[in-house]
Predict the 3D structure of the following.
Amino acid sequence: MRLPRRPRLLLPVGIALVAIVALFFLFSGIYTDYLWFDAVDYTSVFTGVVLTQIVLFLVGALLMVAIAGGNMLLAFRTRPMFGPAMFGGASGADRYRMALDPHRKLIFIIGMGLLALFSGSSFAGQWQTWLQFVNGASFGKKDQLFEFDISFYMFDYPFIRMVLNFLFTAIIISILLAAITHYLYGGFRLQSPGLHASRAARVHLSVLLGIFVLLKAIAYWIDRYGLVFSDRGFVHGASYTDVNAVLPAKTILAIIALICAALFFAGVVRPGGMLPGVSFGLLVLSAILIGGVYPALVEQFQVKPNQQGKEALYIQRNIDATREAYDVDKTEVETYNAQADPAKVQPGGDTSVSGVRLLDPALVSSTYEQTQRIRGFYNFAEPLDVDRYRDASGKMIDHVVGVRELTGPPEGQNNWINRHLVYTHGYGFVAAPGNKVDSSGLPDYDAKDMPVSGPLATSTGLKEPRVYFGEEPASAEYVIAGGNTDRPQELDYPQTGGTGQKNTTYTGGGVALGSFFNRMLYAAKYSEANILLSGDVNADSKILYERHPRDRVQKVAPFLTLDGNPYPAVVDGRITWIVDGYTTSNDYPYSQSESLGDMTRDTSSDRRVIAQQPTDRINYIRNSVKATVDAYDGTVKLYAWDTNDPVLRTWSSAFPGVIRPATEMSADLKAHVRYPEDLFKVQRYTLSRYHITDPSAFYSGQDFWNVPGDPTQGDKNTKQPPYYLTTTMPGEQPTFSLTTTFVPRQGPNLAAFMAVNSSAESGYGRIRILRMPSSTPIPGPGQAQNAFQSRFAGELNLLGVGASSVRYGNLLTLPYAGGLVYIEPVYIQVTAGGGQEPYPILQRVLVSFGSKIGVGRTLTEALKEVFGEQEQQQEQQQEQNTQQQEQGEANQADAALTSAITNAQKAYDDAQKALQASPPDWDAYGAAQKRLQDALKALEGANRQQQPDASASPSPSASPSASPSASPPATPSPSASPAEGT
């Protein structure tokens, strides 16, 4: 039915308008992307990626159209001159041909256009594979099977597979299109007694099938190198069956495929279907028998009965490659007999645990929010982060830090102006030492409030506290800032003690909205007419978007896999987000491939949205880049951290000048660099098995470990997160570290303690594992948690009465004094009142060491309860020794006193006898008196020894008493004669 004249005229106009609008929106998306890259000074990345994608799109589209479209045209041009009649009679194909033939050019153009679009887009999506292929750097290390440099498998092999897949797709589509065209135009007919084909159709399809089989031969040969990624054996990598059965089978199949391709090509000169049929049957049969049955027989009857011995060599290759690929080959493992008795710990010795971090960043986020949010439209990320800052004495202390970010306008005020022009940024950096709280159990903030105040704010020289770029969901929205310099309208912070507010105007970078054209593009991008119409948007306005630090880094470095937890730091007076970037791959030969999401998932990652990664399965990872994002102006900087990484060198070659050398990092920035969480989680997952380097022990698996479940959450299925804290490893000085524990695959006991040096100042990245003795059980984290709860259940339950509840903080494990100490803060979650949400307050600290468990309001009290008994025992022993010494001295004094009294009594008796003699014996009397005088002096000395504070001499009553009838006369002088004494 023919349309009326007016609709026929309006239809092309409507289609043209739709096309123009669609192209405008497409252009606006691309051009605004360019403006964003230009604003952050990374246009080389934008142009490099876009130009590569355009070239690959054109190559893929043109090749696909040339191959598929060319074969379709060839089939049409070689159609039989007399059409279907040459085979006699009409068929169902005639009806389709007659319906399509009048529109064949339009159908061909549309079909080829769609094919070009899909194939070009698919090829352009492989831009990373292409750039790695042309820029690939050498690893300087060969694989153990084919002795190729590792770079062949990392960069060349994926590109070869990409090209083969494209050619296979092109040939298969060509065969289908050519067959359809030949069928429609009478090139062959499916009729009794069989297939009838013209010579042109037979030759054409034989050549296409021959090319397909030839590609299959090449694929068989290339597949040989892919055996280094095989998962057939006990571990990933070429196994015994792969090397001794699959490898020769692939070689034989490649030769057979070449023969079959030759047979297909022979069909060009020899009519009939015998040769193609024979070649096809030979190909299928050999693929089944040689490629499938033979390796299965070898696996079943040679390997499985003797798997440990047969696979030992290949398990060893997997162990070596996996440890290298995950960068754990230099891990130090040592036996640690953690059975120290607290009674044997010398008081006043190692006191490294006294400053351990108590604030749990996963719990105190709500405490920060309730005590430092100031207004309801601010918030803190959950969980908070751990960093290091110096205290007043200059000592580095672990701090729990966060930034006060904006959540959006208050409820009821969420209009376009407030959301995008007034409430544009957060404000302030909040920090508290992790090892102490104030008298009420709240964080002892040393950077707080609005404007930011406190010792830390002063010592760090914080001069720009505004946060335009952050982690809160509000950062996903754009804001327009900097437009009103004379009349600031951006909310800076609420005025203290009043209802007013301090306003500011943004002066940083961003995409300028001064031109009408730019405003029109962004109005189209965000479907928001106000951007174009608002009078508050002027020549000085800047539009800020992609405001999440991770999103900004991912956009300027799309070749990196990023850590899921950016963290803020005050660097050179500005709040700076630090993001760790990884180079990852799943193409390292013989290395074990695992899911990145599974390896990094634990209770801490479950608290935040897990960032989507470009690829989930990896078998190679390096922390090659440290990236920073300025929280005020969004400046992104990338620093090459691991210059030995060949993958990083490859991307540095593909995008020269994008990644800066680490020497450009300031000293302040290096002081805040830490070992990344996700890498550590990947490495602990790997080392739970690959701490074993002997293939026989690895095969038995009896010494495999698990990361324990988080005992504070009561969830055995969710792994305990690693913890940042300053710890002292045996023989080392206290170091900022990232730590974790392991338990055996079977059992709750502690198997090992692992720590990595997280300080860039010295020994960064050194991994040490303290392996517990296998003969003696050491309590694991779950057992320590059970011991805490059973021991102090009554006391803790009393704390959690009424509107309060008990919350357990991070259970920290530390090597200490030859043993292991468990430290766990206990919080009471209280309701703030006034409609505020409850928040935790630190009330108790639990400590366990060996067989001793202590609890206190502070860590010092808990440590004294555990280790103070030894001091008390020593004091008691000292007191006992003193008492024994005093008792001995008292006994000696009593003996001396008794002896003096006895001697005095004896001397007195002798003197009396001398007087009573007839005549009196004055010589004997004088000698007795002399002995009496000596005895009295001895008596006085013994009495003083018994009463050291007495100042008086003994009273006469203490002397031996004489008989009442007589008293001793005075001692005669030596000159007196006996007569004078009468």
The mean pLDDT is 86.
